[in-house]
Amino acid sequence: MKTLVLSVIAAAVLAGCATAQISDSDRLALYQANAGAPVNTIMYTSPRGWDRVDSEHIVVDMAPNRQWLLTLSGNCLDWGTGSPFIGLEPKIGGMLAKFDEVHVKGAPMSCRINEIRPVNIKAIRASENALREQAKAQKS
Question: How far apart are CA 138 and CA 99, in angstroms?
């Protein structure tokens, strides 16, 4: 019973501390504002992680301070038919390039990479935190 009470209290505390969500359009604007010029290829290493920005953009984390904003062909990140697991398929060994593909596990089609841009992830995280704080202040 004590465990249940602690779990309920912890859940209530976490819910109270939850930050406001940032809309997809605001997140995309943040990433685009903090992205460098498009490049044709990047060195491909096994990604450490990735983050969905919106239905046509993902950020791939290749290494510390090496994150890339990928613009994909159309609305192909359909989690309703697949799962939130992706696979990158470079056609040139060791390089990820424009027109390579991103696969969503279980989805019927793959996404073509239309653009690759380096991003300043530290600036993006700082901006996201500022937006969340602003949203929290407006709610109060």
Answer: 42
